[in-house]
Specification:
The complex is a heterodimer. Chain A is an alpha/beta fold. Chain A contains 28 helices and 19 strands. In chain A, helix 1 packs antiparallel against helix 13 and helix 18 packs parallel to helix 19. The longest helix of chain A is centred in the N-terminal third of the chain and has 26 residues. Chain A is elongated, with a radius of gyration of 29 Å. By secondary structure, chain B is an alpha/beta fold. Chain B has 15 helices and eleven strands. In chain B, 52% of the residues are buried. The chains are: A alpha/beta, B alpha/beta.
Chain lengths: 736, 344
C-alpha cells in the first residue's frame, strides 16, 4: 500500500500485458513527429533506464546503500530534451532529469550512464562528477554543470550563460560553447514561483527586449505539486504564457511525440532566432517527492492512483504499440531486461569505494590544478594607447578610486575575456567613478549596465564564467549583496567542490562597502559586516586599505581567477575611495603612485607598519587607516613602540605567519570595523587564544552590533582614532 | 541456479597462429553446417577453404595471415567457441570484439545471419587482396605492471605528430588496445615511426599482412564495401552489441541503416577503440564473467590491462590480475583449454 515504487513497477507489467493502457491526452502522433521507429524505441529505452534507476535507488536505500532517492519517475518525457538539444548546449538541470541525462549520454560514444548514475546514488568516490560529494546530474563532456539546487538558484546563471554565447562571438573569443549553441535550464512547477526564478525570467526578457541575443530554453517540468503543495490548476500556463519577450510553448509530457514536436519548435526559436523560450511540459509525479515522502499523508489514494495510471512509460508503451513499433511482449522485454542489467550494475557499484575522511571531502573545495597561464603583460606602448593622457599621471600620488580604475584598465587590456558589469558601471562610470572611462576604452560588449537586480548580476557572472569569460561584476553597496548571497554561497562557491574542479566559475566580484561615510547613506550604504562571506569555503575575500594595495591585490585576484577558476570577493572601502590624507589635511599620505605592472600582493600576504613590540594592532581596511592615526599619537604620548598589521585578506589567512609576527608582542589589539558579532576580529581573537603561548593581553575593538544611522551619529558606533587610542591605553594599563 | 551473466569478446586479425591449427576439429552439427556453407562459398571464389586452412599440416604466414584467408578462418574459430558456451549456465548479455572481431560480434548478436556474416567478413577480408594499403605496428604504453604510463602515451603522440609533419608520411592511431596502441599508416610513415619509438623488447612490432585498418587511408575500401555489401544483410540484433566507439546497439532500438553505415563507414576509416568497448561492457553490463573467444588468447593481455585501467574488481596491476585469474578467472579465454572447460 505505501510502497508505491512496487505498485508502479507491477502496474507497468500488468497494464502493458493486459492492454489496460491510459488514453492519450494530446493528438500529436508518431507520423507527425519526424522520429524514426528506432529513435522512438531509443527514447523509450532511456525512459525505462531512468525508471529502473529510480526503482533501484529505493532498493539500495532499503539496504542502506543509497543516500538519495529523489527520482525522475513521471518526468521521463524529458528524455526528448536529451535528444533534441546538442551535447554542446550547456544544460543546467534540476533533479528529476534522469531520462534526459541518459539520452544525452547517448550523444557521447563510449559513455556509461547507468554506471555513472548508480555511482552517484551510492555516493562512491569513483563517481565521475562530484566524486561522491552529492548525487548530482553533471558531466563535463556533456556540458552539464552539476546542480544541487532545489530552489531555482541555477536559473540566473543559465541566463548569463545564454547571454555569453553571442557575446563571445562578438568579441571573437574562443569559449566553451560553439557560437550557435543554446542554453537549457530545467526546473519544476513549484520552484518556478521562486524569486530567483522570476528574476531570471525577468532578466532574460529584459535583455531580449533590447534586441540582445538570449538563446535560452527554460524548461518547466510541471508535475502540479511541490512536495505536498499543489500548484493551482493552470497556474504555470497563466503565469508564463504572456511574459514579455519569452515565447511560451506547452507540451504533453506523457506523449513522447508531442514533447518531441514542441521541443523542436522551442529549439528552433532559441537556436535560430536567439530568443528565450518557456517550454512548459505537463506531466505527473510518481513515487512521491522522495523515498522518505509518504504521499498518502496529503494526497488521496485515488489521486495517487490516477497519477500512477498516467505513468509516462505506460503512455509511451501505448504509443509505440499502437504505431506497430513494438509489441506488448517487446515492451515488457525491454523493461525486464533493463531491470536485470541495472540490478547487476548496482550489485557491482555498491562495492566501489566511498569518501571517508573530511580531508578527502574537502580536497575539491578549491581547484588546485592550473587551468591556463595568465596572458602576458602589455608593454608601455600598448598601455599608453589605451590609457591616453592618464598614462603620464601614473607616477603621481592618487586616491584609491583612481588607482583601482587604472588597475582595471590594465587588467581589461591584459585579459581579453574580462567583463565589467553592474548597476551604473558603464556611461556613468559607477557611483564612485571607479569604472569611469572603461566603456569608452573597451566598448559596451565588455563594459555594460545590468538591470537593478544583484541576483541577475552575480548569476550573469556565473553564467559568463561557465562559458570561459572572466567576469568582474560590481555590486554597488555591500548591503545589496544579501538578496543575491546564494549566488555566491550556494552556486559559485560550490561548483569546484561538486565537480572536482572540472567546472569552474571564476570571477572577481567587486563590492563597494563598509562604513565611515561621514553621515551619508545610512545603513544601506554603510553596511559593515562581512560575515556573509567569511564562512563560505574556498572564497577569496580581499579588503584593501589603500589604492596601491588595491591594485596589487586585484592583480593577484584576477590571476587566481583566471589560472585556477577562483571565486573572489573584493570589498572596496567606500570611505577610502577618495581619501588622500592620513594624519592631517593636505599631507597626501594616503595617496599613492600607481604600482608598477610587475607588482602584486600575494594571497594572504599582510603589510606591517612599524616594528615595535610594546603594542601590535591587527586590522584591515578602514581599521588600518584609523589605527595608523592612533599609533602615531600613542607613540608620541607614551613613548611606546608599536606595530600595525594590515591583514589585507580576510580569506585566505596565513595563520602561522600572523602568529609568528605577533610572537614578541607585549600587547595585541584587534581593530575591527565590522559589527562585532560574527566578525573577523572575533576569529582573530580566537586564533590568538588558541595558539599563542604565552598569551599576551589582547583586546578587540569592534563596531557596535547596530546598524549605521544617518547624520552626525553615523560613525558613533565605529572604532576611530580616539576609541583605538583609548582601548590601547586600557589594555596597556596607561591611565590618564 | 541463476545463470551467470557474461559478455562475449571476439578476437580480431592475428589471433590464429600455428598453435591454432586444427582448432575446428570438434563435433558440432551447427558448426559443421556453417563451415560447409563457408567452404562452398570459398570454393566458388577460388579461395582455400576454411577446412583446408585449419586442417593444414603446417602454418604458413604467407597463407594463413592473408586477409582473405585469415578473416573467415578466425570467424569460424570464434563461432566454434561461441557455440560451445553452455547457455544453460551462461546468459550472454552483450557481445563486442576487436577490429574484425566486430564482424563476428555482429554475427553472434544476430545482426548478421551465418550467410551474411560470411559475406561481410570475407568481403572485408578480401578488400586488399591484390595490394595491401599501408600497414600496422603495435607498441606498448604500459609499465611492467600493465599500468598506463602517461609519458609513453605522450611519446607516441609526439612521434605521430612528428611523423605526420614530414612530407609523404601518414600515420594514425588505429586501435586502442588496452596497454597497447596499434598504429597504422603508409610505409614511409611506419618506417619513421619504427625509428622514432624507443625499442622495448620486440616492440615496436610490425603486424604481418595487416593493412592500415581503421584509418582514413581505407576510405576507398569503405566506399567499395558500401557498393558491394547490401544493407539488407543487416538486421536488428537479439543481443546488445558494443561497437568500436563504445556505442551500444540494443535489440529493439537499433537503426539497421545506421548499423550498416557504421560498420562499413566509421568502423573502417576511424580509430577502433577496443579499450572503450570493453570498458562500456564492464560498466554498463557488469557481467559475472567475460568470455574471450578463440582462436588463441592474443587479447588476454589487453583485456587484463583494460581491467587494470578501470580498477575493475580492484584489479590494479598485473600481479592482481594474475592472482584473480588463478583464483577464479573473471576473464575466461576459450583459447586456453583449461579455461575453456569452465564455460562449456
Amino acid at each position: 500500500m505505501f510502497n508505491r515504487a512496487e505498485v508502479v513497477d507491477t502496474n507497468f507489467l500488468k497494464f502493458v500485458k493486459e492492454w489496460q493502457l491510459p488514453p492519450g491526452r494530446s493528438q500529436n502522433a508518431f507520423k507527425d513527429s519526424g522520429l524514426t521507429a528506432a529513435e522512438a524505441i531509443d527514447l523509450f529505452e532511456s525512459q525505462v533506464i531512468s525508471r529502473h534507476l529510480d526503482l533501484q535507488a529505493r532498493l539500495l536505500k532499503g539496504k542502506n546503500e543509497c543516500f538519495y532517492t529523489i527520482g525522475s519517475s513521471g518526468h521521463e518525457g524529458n528524455a526528448v530534451f536529451g535528444k533534441v538539444f546538442r551535447k554542446t548546449d550547456m544544460a543546467f538541470l534540476h533533479y528529476r532529469s534522469g531520462a534526459m541525462m541518459v539520452q544525452r549520454y547517448k550523444q557521447l560514444a563510449g559513455s556509461t550512464p547507468i554506471y555513472d548514475l548508480l555511482l552517484s546514488f551510492v555516493a562512491s568516490s569513483e563517481e565521475p562528477i562530484a566524486g561522491g560529494r552529492h548525487k548530482v546530474f553533471g558531466s563535463l563532456p556533456l556540458l552539464v554543470p552539476p546542480q544541487t539546487s532545489t530552489i531555482a538558484s541555477h536559473l540566473p546563471k543559465a541566463v548569463g550563460a545564454a547571454l555569453s554565447i553571442n557575446r563571445a562571438k562578438d568579441l571573437n573569443l574562443n569559449t566553451v560553447m560553439p557560437d550557435d549553441s543554446v542554453v537549457l535550464c530545467s526546473f519544476g512547477d513549484a520552484s518556478a514561483n521562486h524569486s530567483t526564478a522570476l528574476g531570471a525570467f525577468n532578466t532574460a526578457g529584459w535583455v531580449a527586449y533590447q534586441k540582445i541575443k538570449m538563446p535560452i530554453v527554460f524548461i518547466c517540468e510541471d508535475n502540479r505539486i511541490g512536495i505536498s503543495v499543489k500548484t493551482p490548476e493552470r497556474w504555470i500556463e497563466r503565469s508564463f504564457s504572456s511574459r514579455p519577450e519569452i515565447n511560451y510553448i506547452k507540451c504533453d509530457g506523457l506523449n513522447l511525440f508531442d514533447v518531441y514536436i514542441k521541443t523542436k519548435q522551442a529549439e528552433k526559436i532559441a537556436r535560430e532566432q536567439r530568443r528565450p523560450v518557456f517550454l512548459h511540459m505537463e506531466t505527473v509525479r510518481l513515487l512521491g517527492h522522495a523515498g522518505s515522502d509518504v504521499e498518502s499523508t496529503y494526497n488521496s489514494i485515488s489521486e495517487i492512483e490516477k497519477s500512477e495510471f498516467d505513468d509516462p512509460l505506460l503512455h509511451s508503451s501505448r504509443l509505440l504499440i499502437e504505431n506497430n513499433i513494438l509489441t506488448q511482449d517487446q515492451a515488457i522485454d525491454i523493461y525486464e531486461s533493463m531491470r536485470e542489467r541495472i540490478q547487476a550494475v548496482a550489485n557491482y557499484v555498491i562495492t566501489r569505494p566511498k569518501l571517508l575522511s573530511s580531508k578527502d571531502v574537502a580536497a575539491t573545495i578549491i581547484n588546485t590544478k592550473k587551468l591556463q597561464e595568465a596572458p602576458k603583460l602589455l608593454d608601455d606602448k600598448e598601455r599608453e594607447k589605451i590609457w591616453g593622457r592618464d598614462f603620464e599621471k601614473r607616477d603621481k600620488p592618487h586616491h584609491m578610486a583612481k588607482l583601482i580604475n587604472w588597475g582595471l584598465t590594465d587588467i581589461m587590456a591584459q585579459y581579453p575575456n574580462t567583463l565589467v558589469f553592474g548597476e551604473d558601471v558603464a556611461k556613468k562610470g559607477g557611483v564612485y567613478h571607479v569604472t569611469d572611462g572603461l566603456l569608452a576604452k573597451f566598448s559596451h560588449k565588455r563594459v555594460f549596465n545590468s538591470p537593478l537586480d544583484e541576483q541577475a548580476i552575480i548569476g550573469a557572472a556565473l553564467g559568463f564564467a561557465h562559458n570561459g569569460f572572466l567576469p568582474i561584476p560590481e555590486v554597488q553597496f555591500l548591503a545589496y549583496i544579501h538578496n543575491a548571497e546564494d549566488q555566491v554561497r550556494g552556486e559559485g562557491s560550490t561548483l569546484s567542490f561538486f565537480s572536482q574542479g572540472q567546472f569552474n566559475n571564476p570571477m572577481v566580484l567587486r563590492i563597494a562597502g563598509l562604513a565611515y561615510q561621514k553621515g551619508f547613506g545610512g545603513h544601506f550604504h554603510n553596511d559593515n559586516s562581512l560575515a556573509v562571506f567569511r564562512d563560505i569555503p574556498g572564497v577569496i575575500i580581499a579588503v584593501p586599505s589603500n589604492g596601491a594595495d588595491a591594485v596589487r591585490m586585484m592583480r593577484t585576484c584576477v590571476k587566481h581567477a583566471y589560472e585556477y577558476g577562483r571565486v573572489v570577493v573584493f570589498v572596496e572601502p567606500i570611505a577610502l575611495y577618495m581619501t588622500r590624507d592620513l594624519h592631517q589635511e593636505g599631507d597626501k599620505k594616503w595617496s599613492f603612485p600607481y604600482p608598477e605592472l610587475s607588482e602584486a600582493v600575494e594571497l594572504g600576504e599582510f603589510a606591517t607598519y612599524g616594528s615595535g613590540k610594546d603594542l601590535t594592532i591587527l586590522t584591515y581596511g578602514n581599521g588600518t587607516y584609523y589605527s595608523l592615526q592612533a599609533v602615531k599619537e600613542l607613540e608620541q604620548k607614551h613613548n611606546i613602540k608599536t606595530k600595525v598589521i594590515d591583514l589585507r585578506w580576510i580569506a585566505p589567512l596565513e595563520k602561522e605567519k600572523i602568529l609568528a609576527e605577533l610572537k614578541e608582542s607585549k600587547h595585541v589589539v584587534v581593530v575591527e570595523e565590522c559589527r562585532k558579532t560574527g566578525s573577523f576580529g572575533e576569529a582573530l581573537l580566537a586564533l590568538m587564544v588558541e595558539y599563542m603561548r604565552p598569551l599576551p593581553p589582547v583586546k578587540l575593538i569592534a563596531a557596535e552590533d547596530c546598524f549605521i544611522p544617518l547624520g552626525l551619529a553615523a560613525t558613533s558606533g565605529l572604532p576611530d582614532k580616539e576609541s583605538i587610542i583609548r582601548g590601547c591605553e586600557e589594555l596597556i594599563g596607561i591611565t590618564k | 541456479m541463476k545463470k551467470q551473466r557474461v559478455v562475449v569478446i571476439c578476437p580480431g586479425r592475428g589471433s590464429y597462429t600455428k598453435s591454432e591449427l586444427g582448432y575446428l576439429n570438434f563435433p558440432s552439427p551447427e558448426l559443421a553446417q556453417a563451415i560447409k556453407y563457408m567452404d562452398e562459398q570459398k570454393s566458388v571464389l577460388g579461395e582455400m577453404t576454411i577446412s583446408e586452412l585449419d586442417g593444414a599440416d603446417v602454418f604458413k604466414g604467407s597463407i594463413h595471415t592473408k586477409g582473405h584467408n585469415a578473416s573467415a578462418l578466425i570467424y569460424a574459430c570464434s563461432l566454434a567457441d561461441f557455440l560451445k558456451i553452455n547457455r544453460e549456465k551462461y546468459d550472454i548479455v552483450a557481445v563486442t570484439g576487436n577490429s574484425m572481431g566486430w564482424y563476428s560480434a555482429l554475427a553472434f548478436g544476430q545482426a548478421l545471419d551465418h550467410q551474411g556474416a560470411f559475406k561481410v567478413i570475407n568481403t572485408m577480408g578480401s578488400m586488399m587482396k591484390e595490394q595491401l594499403i599501408g600497414g600496422q605496428i603495435i607498441y606498448p604504453v604500459v609499465d611492467q605492471e600493465w599500468r598506463i604510463e602517461p609519458s609513453k602515451t605522450n611519446l607516441v603522440m609526439m612521434a605521430l605528430e612528428k611523423v605526420n609533419s614530414q612530407t609523404g608520411s601518414e600515420v594514425y592511431i588505429s586501435i586502442r588496445l588496452g596497454g597497447y596502441y596499434v598504429l597504422a599508416g603508409n610505409r614511409q610513415g611506419l618506417n619513421k615511426l619504427m625509428e622514432l619509438l624507443p625499442k622495448e623488447g620486440d616492440y615496436p612490432f610490425q603486424l604481418i599482412n595487416h593493412g592500415a585498418f581503421h584509418t582514413p587511408m581505407l576510405q576507398e575500401v569503405s566506399e567499395s564495401a558500401f557498393k558491394t555489401l547490401s544493407p539488407k544483410l543487416f538486421h536488428k540484433p537479439t543481443i546488445p552489441m558494443i561497437d568500436g566507439r563504445g556505442v551500444i546497439w540494443t535489440p529493439y532500438g537499433t537503426d539497421v541503416d545506421e548499423l550498416y553505415g557504421y560498420t562499413l563507414g566509421h568502423q573502417v576509416t576511424e580509430m577502433y577503440d577496443f579499450s572503450c568497448a570493453v570498458t562500456v561492457a564492464l560498466k554498463e553490463f557488469a557481467p559475472d564473467k567475460v568470455i574471450l573467444l578463440g582462436p588463441g588468447n592474443s587479447l588476454g593481455g589487453a583485456m587484463g590491462q583494460i581491467l587494470i585501467q578501470n580498477l575493475w574488481r580492484n584489479i590494479n596491476n598485473k600481479n592482481a590480475f594474475t592472482a584473480c585469474q588463478e583464483q577464479e578467472p573473471f576473464l575466461v579465454s576459450m583459447g586456453i583449454a583449461e579455461q575453456q572447460k569452465l564455460v562449456i
